[in-house]
Amino acid sequence: MHASNAKKIEPEGGEWTPTSWQRKPAAQQPVYPDPVALQEVLSQLARLPPLVTSWEIETLKQQLAEATRGERFLLQGGDCSESFADCESSSIAYKLKILLQMGLVLTQSGRKRVIRVGRFAGQYAKPRSADTETREGVTLPTYRGDMINRGGFTVADRTPNPELLLRAYERSALTINFIRSLVDGGFADLHHPEYWELGFMSKSPLAAEYRRMVESLGDSLRFMETLIGSPVSEINRVDFFTSHEGLQLYYEQAQTRQVPRRDGWYNLSTHFPWIGDRTRALGGAHLEYFRGIANPIAVKVGATMTPEEALALTEILNPANEPGRLTFIHRLGADRVEAMLPGLVKAMQGHGRQVLWCCDPMHGNTETTASGIKTRRFEKILAELEASFHILRDCGAHLGGVHFELTGDNVTECIGGSCGLTEADLSRAYRSQLDPRLNYEQALEMTLLLARLMSQRPLAKRG
Ligand code: PEP
Ligand code: CO
Fold this sequence. Notes:
Elements: H1 35-47, H2 54-68, E1 72-78, H3 89-110, E2 113-119, E3 132-135, E4 138-141, H4 155-158, H5 163-184, H6 207-228, E5 241-243, H7 249-254, E6 256-257, E7 266-267, E8 274-275, H8 285-291, E9 297-301, H9 307-317, E10 326-330, H10 337-350, E11 356-359, E12 366-368, E13 374-376, H11 378-394, E14 401-405, H12 440-455
Parallel strand pairs: 1-2, 1-14, 2-5, 8-9, 9-10, 10-11, 11-14
Antiparallel strand pairs: 3-4, 6-7, 12-13
Helix pairs in contact: 1-5, 3-5, 3-12, 9-10, 10-11, 11-12
């Protein structure tokens, strides 16, 4: 492990507890009109069983440490925000399918094991740019995600309701339960990638390239099995991990627990929570909460981040400089990445800080069309991804992962890609409540392009 030369920054305010964040300014929190009802819900949540276990969390941290060393690759993706209405079997299975397909392409071309992490089973709270929304002279609290309030424009819909925290916990449990059953039941078996095909795929010009990869993987598997004389049973299942933005701190706090025979406190609502770009203030409540949990964590790194601030973040969030503990999900925008990323990478290298670099090419490339629709352009997303790959390699580091907003559905929210979606198509199947997602075909195409980049890269040394 590298020693840090930077001065240690002790967060002010003393000892950490799961509630010590309440002493700090907390951005993006709803105001609950009934604090007694909130406390009642929080104590129920604290009694309910955890959604994930500490040993799964430790396994993921180990795998992220390997990705930090260049031995694995992180694939993180899912909806911008989950909705209660979309908690149904096909939507979950489609998301799993596209992540499995993307993982297969990256494993095949990048020659690295892929860590699959969904933005699901808890992605129910969203940061918003204003606390209130006004329509025709009526001002109400802004919609902050299904875990907090409802999207309709009435007082009843928009008043933050703590019962929704329980509903979100339950939906998360249902989602995770279905994913675990699918994975354990053989859905993710690499012998049967045909299970993951989606109906509309056969029409795609990418289908042939994808099928070639699947066939070559099948050949390799059969070859290995012939060689060793038995089925490769490890391949029957792959791991899936969950992640969400740890935004609503009461919810996170209620599921933060100590477990037998391990030190520290675990957030057992998810394997891999992250801090959003709007809530990463150095003196803020989110940093205070995250510094004390034992999970691997990530921070979104947007265009206002300075190298000094990035260093200070690593000192607060990963003082032991443990590989796998901290991921930077950079989302600088295709137009800024060349100017900003090298400085951030060099600051980490100059102080020997261990971070995993994961590119989110979505959030720095959002635009609004003349008719007021939020979209993202395929070529900008790809441009940020490619630039990040090259910048990191040229700095002597490496791109360790990718973070996408995507769906397994055939939506029309992002412009471009070989499916040729144009601005005029956006209204046809725009389903996202918030940010525009890559549809199934765009996500697969993006992965095939990334795979080409990765396959030109020399194999990483094993540590
Ligand atoms: C998000 O991931 O949906 C999000 C809000 O990202 P960011 O914090 O990077 O803006
Ligand atoms: Co988003």
